[in-house]
Design a protein that fits this description.
By secondary structure, the protein is mostly beta strands. The chain is 0% helix and 56% strand. The protein has one domain (10-123, 136-169): Sandwich (Jelly Rolls), CATH 2.60.120. The protein is globular, with a radius of gyration of 15 Å.
């Protein structure tokens, strides 16, 4: 599945999880802004949430502080919102039901620009607390500058399956 429109998006890499602890994208220096799309991501641990981490050394290490991120989410049949926030990572989902689908997208802005990284997007997933399907709005920033790699992981356990596509966004 390719998400291209008028040559604005260039596929940088597509990676699949198979009982994976994490998925990393490195050498992110060609574009300043990226679009990350994930689909059919299944956690193997009940209540785990998908997280994003940033690196300034091309993935040798990933920051575990200086994030200001969160997700506001609700069940499909509720008007009540719940929040997860973190200063140790950028949350990309609420608590997943183990063995169920998680899909979403996030714009990742200012990578390798010398400015802080800003992330925003949306997600739908099977919530282990709220019930069947939940959806949420993602937002936050990593205070790291000069980021050149990102890592996706669950808060605990592995990703049983899933696909992650990273697109570079061409500047006009």
């Amino acid at each position: 599945m390719t998400y291209r429109q008028d040559g604005v998006f260039d596929l940088v890499s597509s990676k699949s999880a198979s009982n994976s602890a994490n998925i990393s994208f490195t050498n992110l220096t060609k574009y300043i802004n990226y679009l990350l799309i994930w689909r059919s991501v299944w956690a193997d641990t009940l209540g785990a949430n998908l997280q994003l981490l940033t690196s300034q050394d091309n993935g040798v290490s990933y920051a575990t502080t200086s994030y200001f991120g969160g997700i506001n989410y609700n069940a499909y049949n509720s008007t009540t919102f719940t929040n997860i926030n973190s200063t140790a990572n950028l949350p990309l989902s609420g608590p997943n039901a183990a063995g169920f689908n998680n899909a979403g997208y996030a714009f990742i802005n200012n990578i390798s620009s010398g400015d802080v990284v800003i992330v925003n997007g949306q997600v739908s997933y099977h919530d282990s607390v709220l019930g069947p399907i939940a959806s949420g709005n993602i937002g936050g920033q990593s205070s790291q500058t000069g980021v050149n790699a990102i890592r996706l992981k669950m808060s605990s356990g592995n990703m049983t399956i899933g696909t992650f596509d990273l697109y570079g966004i061409r500047e006009s």
